[in-house]
Amino acid sequence: TGDGPDPLGLYPNVRELPRGGPPFHPRCTKRYVAFIPNLATAEEKQAGKLKSHERELLGKSPGEAQRKFQESQPMTAAARDPAAVKAGPAVANQATPPISSGGSWPRGQDGGPLPARSVPPSDHPVAEELRRYAGADDIITVIKNQPNLSVEQLATSLGNGNRPGIALHPSKPAAISASGLNSSQIKHFEKDTQAGAETLSRLMPDAGGFAVRIDPLPINSDDRPGFLREPNGTFSIKSQFYGRKAQVFHEFGHLLETDPARLKAAKEFLTFRVGTEKAIKMAEVFGDRYDSWETARGDDFLKLFPKYPNLGYYVGKDYGVELHTEVISSGLQLLATSPSKFLETDVEFFKFIIRVLRRDL
Fold first, then answer.
1. Distance in angstroms (rounded) separating the CA atoms of residues 296 and 325
2. Partner residues linked to 258 by β-bridges
3. What is the dihedral of CA 97, 115, 340, 148, to 10 degrees?
């Protein structure tokens, strides 16, 4: 309500918020929106009222506010202390065992248990193919000998730097102008996105067959990163300035799915992993940022995110007959974050991603 007093006594002054209000950190996507109680509708007034757990954040430092907020979330409470949340009762006659990583079964937005995963048979054709697949052996050997290698160092160690790589078209001048980035930030953005393309190109024998434009999002935008199929048949990626390495790798995964063979492999792998697991609405896991039609299954992907296991449901998002999944994208993001942890946690998924990159399909 600005610097003046609140006439209704219901809404806090901006100066009461941690660090004087958002953003809490440089990557925060929130922004100020004017709210004048005397001009607001009854619905807006009700939505603007602080809930009891939100009021507890007032007057706290950013660190204290973040800790309190995390403690209030069912998902993070489970992830932080596996012993604190036991596996819940049966849901729709399905058992709810802990995820295989030993963490507690994840919780929905209401704190209740989510459906149990189905365990795919070990003799499934996809499982057999990945067990026998030797095309990742050289990469696995490098990682086991040097577990601290970054994905860039890993790719460089494999050579392949002379073959054609993913072509990056220049960003749209309008996107650069609207981004709010200064000249130094623009250079960093271009350098890092080029580095990401070069890294993936070293892992892909057919990288030269792909081309994409990467545009920076406005630095204080609420827009999410994304992959776009342009009307003229070209492809583009929207990426934020902060966290761009993982974002670009993720969106490159959608670029790879424009190859029908890779898309088919991704859908087959997802079908194999989720099996007969009951799909749930993503809003039950992540809140109302997702529409009611968006559903997902978590499988054993949850173990890949020990701090926030519910993120595994994003890997298992169901797009139906649409021409994409989140499987390759999430796998590339995990590879970009830590090749050794990805390999150690889910060797089957890891080998699938290497197989897709090398197009051993």
1. 11
2. none
3. -90
